[in-house]
Amino acid sequence: MPTTTPSKNTSTKRQRQRTGPSPAHYDFVLVVIVASLIGLGMVMIFSASYVQANNLYGKSAFYFLRQLQWLAVSVIAMVVAAMIDFRILKRLALLLMAGTVIILIAVLLFGKDNLGSRRHLFGTSVQPSEVAKLTIIIYIAYWLSSKGSRLKEVSVGLVPFSVLLSLVALLIVLQPDFDTTALIVLTGLLMFFIAGADLKQLGIAGVVAIITFVVVVTQIDYASVRINEFLQFLKDPGAGSDQLTASLRALANGGVLGAGLGDGTTNILLPFTDSIFAVIGEELGLVGALGVVALFMAFVYRGLRIALRSGDEFGLILGCGITGWIALQAFINIAVNTATLPFSGLTLPFVSYGGSSLVACMAGVGVLLSISRYSTQAAQSPARAATRQPTNGATYATLGLWWRNWRARLPGSGRSRRVTTSRRTTGSSRGRTSASYSVKASSAPRKAVLSRRVTRAKRTIARRTGTSRKTTSSSTTRRSSGTRQVPRRR
Which of 21, 79, 379, 479 is deepest in the core (most CB within 10 A)? Predict the structure, then answer.
């Protein structure tokens, strides 16, 4: 009974069904994590502010409704950022940086004076330094990714990077906003490390940053006062600032399960901006506080996962920068509320009251979602994967750590290796025939199996090629002898 072989089109369709590209997608787990933090924050803002809002404005939900308006704006910012291909930000990086510098200068010239500081434009509704965090991260990611392997050179990497970071830090310190300045410097150093800076250069930059920190603390009055209050608190907890004492008292009153929503006794003394973690610890207890920490740890995991799967050096540095910024800000806020660090004015991302902070953080999440979507789409597109595949040992990341081959473990189509073995034999009248064996190595066990297959294929090719050569030489000898030989029957 004759056997039918499947046609080429049928096999191609089956192959597409098995390995064909699937639709690009956003990281919805990240969206769920952020939505959980925002939902918890909205509840805690109302619980911590309804007494003060009723006393000042006669509306217990005044701050809640105002934060709800900013939430709508921040969701729009996140959606717009997620829909834009993150690689377009490369072209806009210089323009964004120039606009940020102009706005920061405008704050110093035209900002509203509030207790000796100029941090806001248009009254107290917009704080440009919050939005500047994201735009500065975008520009630093663009600048670092453009240097490539030359980043290790002092004249190309360390010196220009220090000048760039110092310029931005100076404009924010003059407001003065020491907390945001420290956060931007730490995030910049983290990105410098991720991009592949030499460890000696990174150490030099760290020493310079510490010296600058000490000088700034001694020159800015409010910063030195906070440091002195914290040192006094470490010596005598009763002699510390009222804010630190109230935060620890709130955490102690909460216990394991908390006093319940709205039943906290110290929420009146604590602001619902930078001390909302202490309110959570009192009303939801240790369980609620650990839940917040767990959500931020999950956020860091998803953010780094997106960055490592970007398949693009700019996306890698940008994703790590945004994740590091939000993680560092959350860590500093929680450390301040637990009296581990001196008091700062940094908000708890997605949770604290504050419109500018929420919009900036949500826009950063939108960029992460864009990296997730477009890097997945590019990885699933054979044409883009072919154009993005590095050659001659090139890599998308230049991180020079003690594990030198870490980049080979990064997932993505651009970092896969293709091993190709080809053979050519000479036929009688059909000319040359060729066959190729190509495999795509992605994991260690699979590499071993595919390596054995390639070895067997090479042996088969060598054996067939040797047989063909023997046949050719035998026929040549027979022709030269002039005798006609009858081929044997097999």
Answer: 379
